[in-house]
Design a protein that fits this description.
Elements: H1 2-42, E1 48-53, E2 57-63, E3 72-80, E4 91-98, E5 101-107, E6 115-120, E7 126-136, E8 139-144, E9 148-150, H2 154-162
Antiparallel strand pairs: 1-2, 2-3, 3-6, 4-5, 4-7, 7-8, 7-9
């Protein structure tokens, strides 16, 4: 009789251990999922992609969120439409205009073939445009980006990028 009682207790312990293990595993999984969702909700590494064309050039640019009073990186890649090759030399000015308030930077040469890296600090919030004025040996040209928005704070800009 004691052996049967001992086997019964062992079988009950195993069942309890299995149930405890399953409950702990489920609790850990749910806690992990909740943490991941929270991190995903607040992990913002958004950038705005812009493309513009004219009769001479194409520009593809990545812009970090535009926030009033904070520096934004504008990495722009320029190619000739005639041969689809990157610009190898030339002066480019990037200008951000918001409500007639302009901020610009001029770079005398690309950092790599076709790549110009600008840093613009918006002075106003609201809708605006980025224009690129290109001066090469063959002449001058202007590219105008689609509309952009400058936000009042980084959090607002990041959440707008997620919509």
């Amino acid at each position: 009789m004691p052996i049967i009682h001992l086997l019964y207790r062992i079988s009950k312990m195993k069942t309890r251990n299995i149930i405890c293990a399953v409950v702990l595993l489920m609790a850990g999984t749910m806690a992990g999922c909740r943490q991941t969702a929270t991190e995903a909700e607040h992990d913002h590494d958004e950038s705005l992609q812009l493309t513009a064309y004219n009769h001479d050039f194409e520009v593809y640019a990545e812009v970090t969120p535009l926030v009033k009073g904070e520096a934004s990186d504008v990495v722009a890649h320029f190619t000739w439409l005639s041969n689809f090759k990157p610009i190898e030399e030339g002066t480019v000015t990037a200008t951000l205009t918001v409500d007639n308030e302009k901020v610009s930077q001029t770079l005398e040469a690309p950092s790599r073939q076709g790549i110009y890296k600008f840093c613009l600090t918006p002075k106003r919030e609201g809708p605006g445009r980025i224009t690129f004025d290109i001066k090469t040996k063959t002449g001058t040209s202007r590219l105008v980006s689609p509309a952009v928005t400058v936000y009042t704070d980084a959090h607002e800009a990041q959440h707008a990028g997620c919509r």
